[in-house]
Write a structure and sequence with these properties.
It contains 9 helices and 23 strands. By secondary structure, the chain is of the alpha/beta class. It folds into 2 domains: 135 residues, FAD/NAD(P)-binding domain (3-Layer(bba) Sandwich); 162 residues, FAD/NAD(P)-binding domain, CATH 3.50.50. The strands form 7 sheets. A 6-stranded mixed sheet has the order 5-2-1-9-20-19, with no helix packed on it. A hairpin with a 3-residue loop joins strand 21 and strand 22.
Length: 355
């Protein structure tokens, strides 16, 4: 019996399971899923959990059940590619015949002194819970500084406005406009929304250090009762420590079939993979579908395709509280209630199709 080991039950891992189970998995293959939580987490909604506008239960989806699926809870400490073993923190290991690495990402602190020690995070469900406790225990009038005005920072700031309108929110961004990956029209729309809701945007910022209750912008101290870091990501530590070829962002370089160049049995999916698009749930799911195609062909001793179609992304949607939103759909900017309804609908459909 061959053992397919999947590291991480994120969007990529879940899509692989949904494509193989219940009927597409060959009779001579079993699956071991390794994750540090006993359920799939909707990472795109961590901002709302941290702000306190949804409960923990709303962003949990049960893993599928199958006679040849074993779910192992624990934390991966390393991967021995030569021995084909996944090393676990409790000094055990799991052997594999084929391995899919989908361990996700962590915050990138850009060597800013004190950033990791004195800021909160929304990169994992555990850290989002901690951030929720910190933000919602603040006294009225407290200052919350959010470092990074990409999609995560903007959604957290807007959700916090609704959850805690008594707080003073500062949003720090390095560029001339927030949401630098979006068209200026969308950035301007979101900036106006923040202006109308009392969020202070600090453009052209340069965070040089963090201390307890203090954030330094261009070395100028600014008091803050809580600081949340949303200013960049990097691959999981396990992937960063792997001795394989990586791109300048530290993501693993792969063949066109999504496996390591020198090992056809090891695949990387999601945030840790070097792909032509920015990491996203959509991208991980599209990549996962192609990995399943390749695995089935290899298991059946069929020739592999010489090329795979480009993964098509449908767009990006962001929320501004519960009633407004923004995004790009088929490269067309949309704003307002329609954008928010679209995002809510997509989330509902995802949860419906995943049980």
């Amino acid at each position: 019996m061959k053992n397919l080991v999947i590291l991480g039950g994120g969007y990529g891992g879940m899509r692989i399971l949904s494509k193989l189970l219940p009927n597409a998995l060959p009779e001579d293959v079993s699956i071991t899923l390794i994750d540090r939580t006993p359920y799939h987490c909707l990472k795109t909604e961590y901002y709302a959990l941290a702000a306190g506008t949804i409960s923990d239960q709303h962003i949990r989806v049960a893993f599928p059940e199958h006679p040849r699926l074993q779910i192992k809870y624990g934390e991966v400490s390393g991967i021995d590619l030569e021995a084909k073993k996944v090393l676990m923190k409790e000094n055990s290991f799991v052997s594999y015949d084929d391995l899919i690495i989908g361990l996700g990402c962590e915050d990138k602190y850009h060597n800013v002194p004190g950033a990791e020690e004195f800021s909160y995070s929304i990169q994992s469900i555990e850290k989002s819970r901690t951030t929720y406790q910190a933000l919602n225990n603040l006294a009225p009038g407290s200052v919350v500084s959010i470092v990074g005005a990409g999609l995560s920072g903007v959604e957290l700031a807007s959700e916090l406005v609704e959850s805690r309108p008594d707080l003073k929110i500062k949003l720090f961004d390095r560029g001339n406009h927030i949401l630098s990956a979006f068209p200026v029209r969308l950035s301007t729309y979101v900036e106006n929304w923040f202006d109308n809701h009392g969020v202070e945007i600090i453009n052209n910022s340069n965070i040089t250090a963090l201390e307890k209750s203090t954030i330094y912008n261009h070395n100028n101290p600014i008091h803050s009762d809580a600081i949340v870091w949303t200013a960049g990501i990097q691959p999981n530590m396990v992937v960063r420590e792997m001795d394989v070829e990586k791109d300048p962002q530290g993501r693993v370089v792969l063949t066109i079939h999504h496996n390591l160049p020198n090992d056809e049995h090891v695949y990387v999916v999601g945030d840790c993979a070097s792909l032509p698009h920015a990491p996203s749930a959509q991208l991980a799911e599209g990549q996962a579908e192609q990995i399943v195609q390749i695995l089935l062909k290899r298991w059946n001793n069929e020739p592999l395709p010489e090329s795979l179609p480009a993964i098509k992304l449908k767009g990006v949607l962001g929320s501004l509280g519960k009633k407004h939103g923004f995004g790009l759909v088929a490269e067309r900017p949309i704003t307002g209630r329609v954008a928010r309804l679209l995002k809510s609908g997509i989330l509902w459909m995802y949860k419906y199709h995943n049980g």
